[in-house]
């Protein structure tokens, strides 16, 4: 069992109940704008030391990320209930893409009740309405 939220028995990288979990789900590749995720996590932690970044996914950047940013949790790829538990137990979702045309992870995170941090562009613009659901 990892970090449960009050409304679920989900998991998010072994985080504790007092930590604020920012979640990224997707391929660990340059085209996914991973550097923006890392900058967002660093800025959030600078403002609130209890921030914990959890990155779910696999890809060519994963070994580099482990080496250069060991302060974050890397879970590898998740599917099914395991992935759903990670969504359900995070506090915020970070979506850095500027190129996604559909962005499955945005409605998946929203369905889990997560607020989404994203650019007002492409897929995120299609789903998120400021003041309504994001």
Largest beta-sheet details: 5 strands, parallel
Number of strands: 5
Number of domains: 1
The CATH superfamily name is Glycogen Phosphorylase B
Proportion of beta-strand residues: 15-25%
Structural class: alpha/beta
Assign the CATH class. Answer: Alpha Beta
As residue ranges, the low-confidence spans are 1-10
Give the SSE string.
Answer: EHEHEHEHEH
* Cα Rg: 14 Å
Average pLDDT confidence is 88
Helical segment tally? 5
Helix content: 25-40%
Distance between the termini: 29 Å
- Overall body shape: globular
Q: Would you mind describing this structure in some detail?
A:
- This protein is of the alpha/beta class.
- The protein has a single domain (20-119), classed as 3-Layer(aba) Sandwich (Rossmann fold).
- It has 5 helices and 5 strands.
- It has helices spanning 34-47, 62-68, 80-89, 105-111, 122-127; strands spanning 20-25, 51-56, 73-76, 92-95, 115-118.
- It has a 5-stranded parallel β-sheet, with helices on both faces.
- Strand 4 (92-95), helix 4 and strand 5 form a beta-alpha-beta unit.
- The radius of gyration is 14 Å and the shape is globular.
- The termini are far apart.
Topology summary:
Elements: E1 20-25, H1 34-47, E2 51-56, H2 62-68, E3 73-76, H3 80-89, E4 92-95, H4 105-111, E5 115-118, H5 122-127
Parallel strand pairs: 1-2, 1-4, 2-3, 4-5
Which descriptors apply to this entry?
disordered N terminus, 134 residues, five-stranded parallel β-sheet, 33% helix, globular, Rossmann fold, 5 helices
């Amino acid at each position: 069992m990892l970090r449960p939220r009050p409304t679920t028995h989900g998991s998010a990288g072994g985080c504790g109940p007092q930590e604020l979990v920012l979640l990224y789900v997707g391929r660990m590749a340059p085209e996914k704008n991973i550097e923006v995720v890392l900058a967002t996590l660093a800025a959030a932690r600078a403002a609130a030391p209890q921030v914990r970044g959890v990155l779910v996914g696999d890809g060519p950047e994963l070994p580099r990320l482990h080496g250069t940013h060991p302060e974050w949790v890397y879970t590898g790829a998740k599917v099914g209930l395991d992935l759903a538990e990670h969504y359900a137990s995070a506090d915020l979702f970070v979506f850095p893409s500027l190129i996604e045309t559909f962005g499955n992870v945005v409605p998946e995170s929203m369905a889990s009740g997560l607020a989404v941090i994203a650019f007002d562009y492409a897929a995120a613009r299609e789903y998120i309405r400021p003041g309504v659901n994001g």
